[in-house]
Amino acid sequence: MQEFVDLGRQPTANGFLLPEEVDREFFFRLAVGVCELCTMVQLLEEVPQDLRYHGSYRYHASGSASHREHFAANARRFMATELTGADPFIVEIGCNDGVMLSTIAAAGVRHLGVEPSANVAELARAKGVTVLSEFFDQATATAIRAEHGPADVIFGANTICHIAHIGSVFQGIDALLGPNGVFIFEEPYLGTIVEGNAFDQIYDEHVFYFSVTSVQAMAEHFGFDLVNAEHIAMHGGEIRYTLARKGARKPAAAVNELLADELTRNLSEPETFAQFGRNVERIRHDLLAVLNKIKSDGKTVVGYGAPGKSSTVTNYCGIGTDLVPFVCDSTPAKQGHLVPGSHLPVRPPTAFADPYPDYALLFAWNHAEEIMAKEQAFRDAGGEWILFVPEVRVL
Question: Per the database record, which ranges form the Methyltransferase putative zinc binding domain (predicted)?
């Protein structure tokens, strides 16, 4: 592995904590490297999975309207294409609060969510979703196959890149997937991250940063074919990958097209990653300059949105309460807690207009259109948005 960016000492990104828990916080070095053989980009230090996914996990996928719409559409698509046989069966790895499987469950289709975080698993069960509270690996998959039979679809969204023991995951896919079944996963795209300078997509949960080139190499290594790859708009730009058993399906033309496109864009070249590292340093410099100018001018700024990636930004840039006194977020489980590491207090959305600040630092930039439309009154009151991806700018 060739290291190309070091974002310093970081906590677990979704480890939102209470003030009395600060002295027990876990930290690690957040650095990323690329494999010179298979082009896989990944973290150089792994955070144990039980520190990342547990009974007080704060991320709820249903919290965004765009997420709900996207995953409902995914469910309808699966039912129209892959889940059309007699008594079909779909398994979702990391079903979170049931945002996708609830639509499947409502249609009466046989399904199973595999979700290790007990609190969000309970939210899924409340929506009628059948959930197994375990980590997905070969042993879990083998047990599922024995009880339920083979899966027609195994799905993961913003989950597969989180799992460090990727070998056991693929052994589990091999054990569970039916002969003509598909393994479909959608994850943040390396091209979007690198070319868009989206360094805040890098945090403890994102162990791998997939490209079409590296996913094809990974699929082949574990005995599968990459048969489709599609750009999707989620989280600022992701790719949905479809894998099948060797020779079971003919690869779509999109696979070779995207492989050729990555080659043209030098997405696996050392200089591309080196430039990304330089761009990240520039963003830190420019963002701190803007925030310090606001402070020296006697103006006010608060954070908007507390996704996991807000932890990366605040800790890498050294943003504390002296520059951003608090962050507003609509997730009840985060309210009253502190952003990991930087310890910015998280308050409910009502605090944003009590009164409006002069500036809002938009941590949830991947929902910018949805948020700005909802907060038009902030703009009407003279407020301005600060964004930092792909560069620092004030709108």
Answer: 2-50
